[in-house]
Amino acid sequence: MCGITGIFDTQRKREIDRAVLHRMNESQFHRGPDEGGLHVEAGLGLGHRRLSIIDLSTGQQPLYNEDQSVCVVFNGEIYNYQELIPELQALGHVFHTRSDTEVIVHAWESWGEDCVKRFRGMFAFALWDRNRETLFLARDRLGVKPLFYALLLDGTLLFGSELKSLLAHGGLSRDIDPLAVEEYFALGYVAEPRCIFRQAKKLSPASTLLIRRGQPIGEPKAYWDVRFSLDSKISQEDACQQLTERLGESIRLRMMSEVPLGAFLSGGVDSSAVVAIMAGLSADPVNTCSIAFADPAFNESEFAKMVADRYRTNHHTDLVESDDFDLIDTLAWLYDEPYADSSAIPTYRVCQLARQHVTVALSGDGGDESFGGYRRYSMHLMEEKMRAFLPHNVRQPLFGTLAKLYPKADWAPRIFRAKTTFEGIARNSVEAYLHAMSVIRDPLRTNMYSKSFKAALGGYRAIDVFDRHAKNANTDDPLALVQYLDLHTYLIGDINTKVDRASMAHSLEVREPLMDHPLVEWLATLPSSLKIRNRESKFLLKKAMEPLLPNDVLYRPKMGFSVPLARWFRGPLRERAHGTLLSERVLDSGWFEPDYIRQLLQQHESGARDHSTPIWTLLMFDAFCRQVVEGGSVTSPGIAA
């Protein structure tokens, strides 16, 4: 696991300032503290920070082919590289290292742009082919590893694993994109390929970008997508057996390491399944790490201990106090873009704990998306039955009116909180799912925005992100549709972003066996009835794991990995929220309606409404502006103050 960065003159061969490239590279020192390397030639500079995992002695980067005409910097792991080496040797390639990085160089020479289709793993890399005057950027199928890039006005292309490396160049404008702000306040993150700054972009997952010097830069090219065919006729018994075998293969591949290795163990089904299978593949006890919360409403540590005791792991637990919110500014700096998932706090802490014992940790991330684990999936299926029962011209006015009349009862038991359900039923399937997913829903978002910000949006709404992906889903199955949407949005923009930045902050490599793309493809062929049955989520995974895990772990209510925001903003964070959100910096920024911000705070503190998530989202936006935007001002060009 590493950090990569670079500068490419797309038009000519102007000299690259080595000091600038070094500064960009060192901005990502945390991603690879073991070694740093630069390659500089006319019109090109590549930088790499290394976290040594495989081939400790000879895996340094940048890495070259035999005549040094091809050079690569790479972040990630190619898990099937040992299978590819003999095939490439048979084609005449000579290997000088035992690293997966060298496979990329020779695969490019033999297979060109299609080389990425042969790789099984998590990766982002930049490859320079001097003979073709070509720079090739690529990102893995499920967006586990990030890659930012920006084309400056003078034709200079910048790229890096984190946005901070582009900012370290000094030439990137920090002009905020209003459309990215709308996406952030709807989703809690800025969705690929957009970036918070107008001039920069993220390379989308499963995409490549080929840039030839002297030619216009085209659009990224997609090389993979998951197809929910749901056409497998496999029996439940055979599906359980195949799933266990496929999980075993995926986990075995990710256990290759020349440094200490372990796993996160939350006590949930996904991480527990990973640990159980790891234990069966390892001659030594597995190292496991978990977080315990002081607040019992958020604490799953007893279930993690059940699994740890059963498999006699070397288990380490760290206690996160209920008021562990001093990370706000640290997280804002770490994520570079505004990022509103408050579970970034415990994720940061569990990575911090894990790094004290291991350099590589396996996680259970990706299981909810592929196995059908989120509670919102069952709610969506219930709403879909109602939407199918009533035509839109009846449903929209009926449930739209009910939603307006029904009080917002955040204080009431869940069964009586019908307003959100009515709002969802009044919408179409995609709009309803965005409504369920949004951190700040319409119309609250609309009320919160200033007139000048609305004008700058020009009618743009975050639903465009979901609509764009829904057009490519090619499925009428309601569960498959929302799984597809999550695999292209939430998994990448929220989960993978959270884990990458939190782990890399501590120089920890996290591997993702449940995001193995052959596994994801296979699961997409299974009928939805094997994923959710009688409102039981992750049906197939739980059935397959019954011989390996206690029922108390498999069939208890899902808790999630969260923090007590509502209590924070009525207690220890009350003054901070007031001082920040009612400051001149925020109220006079031009983004928001001041009276509505005051109303949010008042309603939350009185207990009339739970606005903890909107308040947190606003706090993190302000922290981003102070930490990342120059001058500490939240005023954006194009937004009237």
In short:
By secondary structure, the chain is of the alpha+beta class.
What is the second-level CATH architecture of the largest domain? 4-Layer Sandwich
Q: What percent of the residues sit in helical stretches (DSSP H or I)?
A: 40-55%
Structural class computed from helices and strand pairing: alpha+beta
Count of strand segments: 17
Count of discrete domains? 4
Determine the number of helices (DSSP H or I, runs of at least 4 residues): 28
What share of the residues does DSSP label as strand, in percent?
Answer: 5-15%
Straight-line N-to-C gap: 42 Å
| CATH topology-level fold name of the largest domain | Glutamine Phosphoribosylpyrophosphate, subunit 1, domain 1
The largest pleated sheet is described as:
6 strands, antiparallel
Radius of gyration: 24 Å
Can you walk through the features of this model?
There is one protein chain. α10 packs across α20. The chain folds into four domains: 2-222, Aminohydrolase, N-terminal nucleophile (Ntn) domain (Glutamine Phosphoribosylpyrophosphate, subunit 1, domain 1, 4-Layer Sandwich); 236-372 and 487-554, Rossmann fold; 375-478, no CATH class; 565-632, no CATH class. The protein has 641 residues and is α+β, with helices and mostly antiparallel strands. It is built from 28 helices and 17 strands. A hairpin with an 8-residue loop joins β11 (207-212) and β12 (221-222). The model is unreliable at 411-417 and 631-641 (pLDDT under 50). The protein has a six-stranded antiparallel β-sheet. The relative contact order is 0.12.
